[in-house]
Amino acid sequence: MRSLSFLSMEYLFLLMSILSQCLKFGSGTAAVVHAGNGDGVQPLSKIAIHKAVYALHENASVKAHPLVLGTKGGDSDWVTVEIECPKPSEDDWIAVFSPANFSSSICQPSDDMEQFPDICSAPIKYKYANDSDADYKKTGKSSLKFQLINQREDFSFALFSGGLSDPKLVAVSNVISFANPKAPLYPRLSQGKSWNEMTVTWASGYNVIEAVPFVEWGMKGESQTRSPAGTLTFHQNDMCAPPARTVGWRDPGFIHTSFLKDLWPSSVYTYKLGHKLVDGSFVWSKSYSFKSSPYPGQDSLQRVVIFGDMGKAERDGSNEYSNYQPGSLNTTDQLIKDLKNIDIVFHIGDITYANGYISQWDQFTSQVERIASTVPYMIASGNHERDAPNSGSFYDGNDSGGECGVVAETMFYVPAENRAKF
Ligand SMILES: *[C@@H]1O[C@H](CO)[C@@H](O)[C@H](O)[C@H]1NC(C)=O
Ligand SMILES: *[C@@H]1O[C@H](CO)[C@@H](O)[C@H](O)[C@H]1NC(C)=O
Ligand SMILES: *[C@@H]1O[C@H](CO)[C@@H](O)[C@H](O)[C@H]1NC(C)=O
Ligand SMILES: *[C@@H]1O[C@H](CO)[C@@H](O)[C@H](O)[C@H]1NC(C)=O
Ligand SMILES: *[C@@H]1O[C@H](CO)[C@@H](O)[C@H](O)[C@H]1NC(C)=O
């Protein structure tokens, strides 16, 4: 982490270009992403979900509670999952599915699949059944805890035998869901195109036909005003290759961006996200705040944090926590602790390591929410956001898992003339 003044912009750009070189070479050794074949980077890619078959056992059960999450308005909650399995084995595992209905009826035949699959969407996370109880393979009983975030859809939990590479579906749980799955969530700020403009981007389940998105904002303690937001989304056929186009696909909901203009220099503003429903009622987020930029050239200290490759991890220990990117939580927590000493963050590529598993983007924007909702979170494209063969990317690898930049450029606002070239 470094602190430097805005005056040393040349130094900053030099540093950024050195870092982005590291980024490319640092991850260039990773193997290629294929749906379910395992690339050794994204843990979900180790699950051969498209090969899954039904092996339901009448005496096996999975039960999840509570049934309703976030009843106090929270956007994350803990769930307890109780498993009973008459024929337990060490490599039994529990998949978290969202939407809860992952049945074969939602599958579409695809050239990218070896056969017509029983299950065609990857779980959003998983744990081995023995995770909290090593005796599981003797007793067939286990109780697991998952921390779920609001990702606009309901959830179910499925017990598989056969390990990750040869999954057999043994039992499926009841369905649970957040009190308001469509709630506006995970705001991220970006500096606008001019010095006195801040943009706010967030996700919700509200299409513009259903509700009008906006931001209510103003100087702290003074009267607040409202600014409209634009709404974007993207579709499965916007993805360039598997797994984003196949098992990694998940509906991203709607991504809204509002432009807060004519800000006064170096002033504290408060804001909240709103949706006005057709019946005239409002849905609100919690309240956030940020400090606006100084006037260009104004004598001021600006503390800039620049990094790439931070990673994404699960606080509940899912997805082989200790093998993947646990350090990203330490980095996130340290940045949150230092937030009062930071004016802007540049995450210069390799943002979520979703690698074509779209569910991971909400989990990343949730992980960095405290940072990104308080200071501008400026992103640049890395190989893990952009690279897909024959899609115009600079490198021809599969490092984005078929996202080919579409997800990154929609999930985050960048003050570029052409969003596709950020
Ligand atoms: C399930 O449990 C019942 C009652 O113990 C037993 O009669 C039945 O055979 C079991 N089913 C299987 C498939 O093991
Ligand atoms: C739990 O299962 C996994 C996968 O089979 C295995 O690698 C791990 O050693 C097991 N853990 C315990 C405590 O038995
Ligand atoms: C799951 O989705 C399919 C396709 O939309 C639908 O036909 C089926 O009834 C759904 N199942 C449940 C349990 O909702
Ligand atoms: C990172 O965070 C984990 C979990 O809070 C903690 O156990 C670990 O000691 C931290 N590592 C470092 C290097 O601070
Ligand atoms: C990317 O993946 C495709 C199959 O999905 C494969 O044919 C191609 O060789 C891969 N490209 C690279 C550079 O590894």
TrEMBL record:
Residues 303-396 form the Calcineurin-like phosphoesterase domain. It is found in: Secreted. Keywords: Hydrolase, Secreted, Signal, Zinc. Residues 62-180 form the Purple acid phosphatase Fn3-like domain. Residues 187-291 form the Purple acid phosphatase N-terminal domain. It catalyses: a phosphate monoester + H2O = an alcohol + phosphate. The keyword Signal applies. InterPro entries: Calcineurin-like_PHP, Fn3_PAP, Metallo-depent_PP-like, PAPs_N, Purple_acid_Pase-like_N. The keyword Transferase does not apply. It is an enzyme of class 3 (hydrolase). GO terms for molecular function: acid phosphatase activity; metal ion binding. Its EC number is 3.1.3.2. Residues 1-30 form the signal peptide. Homodimer. PANTHER family: PURPLE ACID PHOSPHATASE (PTHR45778:SF44), PURPLE ACID PHOSPHATASE-RELATED (PTHR45778). Belongs to the metallophosphoesterase superfamily. Purple acid phosphatase family. This is Purple acid phosphatase.
